[in-house]
Amino acid sequence: MAQEELWDILEILAARCREQEAGIRERLRLSPAEYHGLRRLPPDEMVTCRELARRMGLSLSRGSRVIDRLFQRGYVRRSECNADRRCKFLSLTRQGKKVRERIDAMRAECEDRLLKDYSRARLTGLKKELMDLTTAFSVK
């Protein structure tokens, strides 16, 4: 298989994943940034605003705007850091956890539909190959 063919397949796969993600966001009435913020905030952990922005690949100022929207929608709570009052810790609220659980469930349903005909061995092989590709892409 030529590299261009593999690249084309990867582009098609990425586009289909984005389509599925857009469907999930639409059903939950989330913006792309809100969706990614909820996906990057661990359900049972507290992280700083700076750390969440880093996980989202955003500057602190752009991340703060996303955090503000998540806060206004009641999905996250902010807590003071005793050591540094400028620093805020973030955690999911009960409502935020419910939305995150719905996102995870919808993603799992999509994955189940996609992989329903895969044996355990074939799926293990596929995951290994995809991880190898991911690693190869990260090498500069």
Q: Give helix and strand order, one letter per element, not per position.
A: HHEHHEEHH
For the record, what is the CATH homologous superfamily label?
A: Winged helix-like DNA-binding domain superfamily/Winged helix DNA-binding domain
Beta-strand portion reads 5-15%
* Count of structural domains: 1
CATH class: Mainly Alpha
By CATH, the topology is Arc Repressor Mutant, subunit A
First and last CA, distance = 23 Å
CATH architecture: Orthogonal Bundle
Give a verbal description of the structure:
- The protein has helices at 3-28, 32-40, 49-56, 60-72, 94-115, 120-138, and strands at 47-48, 76-80, 88-92.
- It has a single domain, classed as Orthogonal Bundle (Arc Repressor Mutant, subunit A).
- 69% of the residues lie in helices and 9% in strands.
- The chain is mostly helical and 140 residues long.
- It starts with a helix and ends with a helix.
- Helix 2 (32-40) packs across helix 4 (60-72) and helix 3 crosses helix 4 (60-72).
- The chain has 6 helices and 3 strands, in the order ααβααββαα.
- The protein is globular.
- It has a 3-stranded antiparallel beta sheet.
Keywords:
single chain, 140 residues, mainly alpha, Arc Repressor Mutant, subunit A, three-stranded antiparallel beta sheet, 6 helices, globular
How is this structure best summarized?
The chain has 140 residues and is mainly α.
Please outline the helices and strands:
Layout: H1 3-28, H2 32-40, E1 47-48, H3 49-56, H4 60-72, E2 76-80, E3 88-92, H5 94-115, H6 120-138
Antiparallel strand pairs: 1-3, 2-3
Helix pairs in contact: 1-5, 2-3, 2-4, 3-4
